[in-house]
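dumping this here so i dont lose it
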């Protein structure tokens, strides 16, 4: 074996060892990075729960996290908030699997896809770890309970509100966070069913934003270029209405285009105040997080928990906002 061959072999071996070491380190750390550093401090905690969101830095899921952490603090729970930085089902599933390997006491997550999430949730339950779905249900799985919006009903409410606000005459484009995720599918289906009997309301196009305000804006622009007859939009994720509004504002079509958004992020509320978003569907993410932790404790302690709890859903317009100060409608006071 020549000198260069030996060097190449040695370098390759070292690279493999380092890479393998990092893989083990991060595989263990991914669901333990928020644990108390002192072993003795764990004694004051009752249980160790993990909340796995669709994406970590999503503003909506930060509100779910806030509620869950408030409950964890109130009830003496170690709570970790871990998952993909950006929406990625494979990473989401891996995070759940690593949580199981860490032998956590309970897992709270979304049931984004029946095909992928149902078998995994069933395996987790069979290992003796309770699972609660939050915001998006996996109703065909063995999950112990669901807490969150009735997503079909929320879409239906949005459709009925659009009918009322447009007097039953609109050419509508829908921008949805995903064509494949259960909650987004149900929000579109509910809307479609609400408006299908209205002969003067037509759904012109449906596009996917991948739950990104940038992509939502791009799709809104594309729709307006290809379908100039569109005079109303419905966005089914928290960032869709914001992206749509940015495009409508840029092309100064505020008075010509109706926008129905979803959720009450501060930017959405500001657009409502300015008349750029006409209405939005209100959910209760903080409540979902807080109550999910309480439900998990009850499950572990053998108390009876309803299999489904639907949090409140309503439509919010500018006249529903308290005057004179910025609001965070989604937070518990």
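and the seq i came up w/
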């Amino acid at each position: 074996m020549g000198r260069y061959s030996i060097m190449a072999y040695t370098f390759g071996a070292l690279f493999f060892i380092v890479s393998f070491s990092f893989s083990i380190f991060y595989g263990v750390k991914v669901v333990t990075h928020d644990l108390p550093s002192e072993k003795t401090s764990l004694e004051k905690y009752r249980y160790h729960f993990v909340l796995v969101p669709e994406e970590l830095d999503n503003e909506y899921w930060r509100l779910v996290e806030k509620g869950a952490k408030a409950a964890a603090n109130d009830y003496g729970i170690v709570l970790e908030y871990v998952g993909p930085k950006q929406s990625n089902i494979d990473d989401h599933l891996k995070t759940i699997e690593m949580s199981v390997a860490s032998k956590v006491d309970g897992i709270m997550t979304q049931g984004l896809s029946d095909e992928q999430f149902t078998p995994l949730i069933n395996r987790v339950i069979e290992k003796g770890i309770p699972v609660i779905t939050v915001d998006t249900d996996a109703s065909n799985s063995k999950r112990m309970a669901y807490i969150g919006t009735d997503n079909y009903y929320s879409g239906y409410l949005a459709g009925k509100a659009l009918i009322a606000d447009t007097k039953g005459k609109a050419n509508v484009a829908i921008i949805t966070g995903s064509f494949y995720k259960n909650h987004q599918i149900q929000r579109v289906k509910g809307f479609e069913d609400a408006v299908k009997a209205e002969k003067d309301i037509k759904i012109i196009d449906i596009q996917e934003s991948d739950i990104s305000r940038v992509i939502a804006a791009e799709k809104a622009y594309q729709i307006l270029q290809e379908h100039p007859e569109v005079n109303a939009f419905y966005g089914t994720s928290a960032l869709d209405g914001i992206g749509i509004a940015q495009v409508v504002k840029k092309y100064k079509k505020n008075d010509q285009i109706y926008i129905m958004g979803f959720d009450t992020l501060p930017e959405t509320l500001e657009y409502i105040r300015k008349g750029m978003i006409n209405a939005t569907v209100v959910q209760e993410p903080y409540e979902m997080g807080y109550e999910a932790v309480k439900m998990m404790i009850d499950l572990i302690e053998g108390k009876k928990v309803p299999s489904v709890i639907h949090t409140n859903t309503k439509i919010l317009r500018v006249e529903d906002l308290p005057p004179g100060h910025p609001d965070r409608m989604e937070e518990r006071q």
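DSSP finds ten helices and twelve strands in the chain.
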